Amino acid sequence: MKYLTLVVTGALMTVAAQAYAGEYDAAKGTPGDNSAVVSQANSAPAQPAAPMKSNAAPVGKTRAEVYEELIRAQQDGTLERLNELYGGG
């Protein structure tokens, strides 16, 4: 019985919170009319959902470069010092 009461109460609170959040004016930080926010949102240029692909070279390191750094760190002792410092195995 208590479980059912908690579930129903939680559902009602969720619905009430969503209804109240729709009336909140985020630009002013107060409850009120959202027409100004909506008009600003409609006048803003649309942003693409995903980044556009380009023909530019990828930024970062290749797997071969990372592997070379690993080998170099093992040979010069850097990897061992880091493992001791951070408790790695």
Question: How would you summarize this macromolecular structure in one to three sentences?
Answer:
With 89 residues, this protein is mainly α.
Explain this structure.
Among the domains are: 1-33, no CATH class; 61-89, no CATH class. It has 4 helices and 2 strands; from the N terminus they run αββααα. The chain has helices at residues 2-23, 35-43, 63-76, 78-86; strands spanning 24-25, 30-31. A two-stranded antiparallel ribbon has the order 1-2. Strand 1 and strand 2 (30-31) form a beta hairpin. Keywords: Signal.
Topology, element by element:
Blueprint: H1 2-23, E1 24-25, E2 30-31, H2 35-43, H3 63-76, H4 78-86
Antiparallel strand pairs: 1-2
Number of strands: 2
In terms of DSSP E residues, the strand content is under 5%
Series of secondary-structure elements, N-terminal to C-terminal: HEEHHH
Q: Which percent bin holds the helix content? A: 55-70%
Estimated radius of gyration? 27 Å
- For the biggest β-sheet, the strand order reads 1-2
Shape: elongated
| Category from helices, strands and their pairing | mainly alpha
If you average the pLDDT, what whole number results?
74
Largest pleated sheet: 2 strands, antiparallel
Number of helices: 4
Distance between the termini: 52 Å
In the predicted model, the low-confidence regions spanning at least 5 consecutive residues are: none
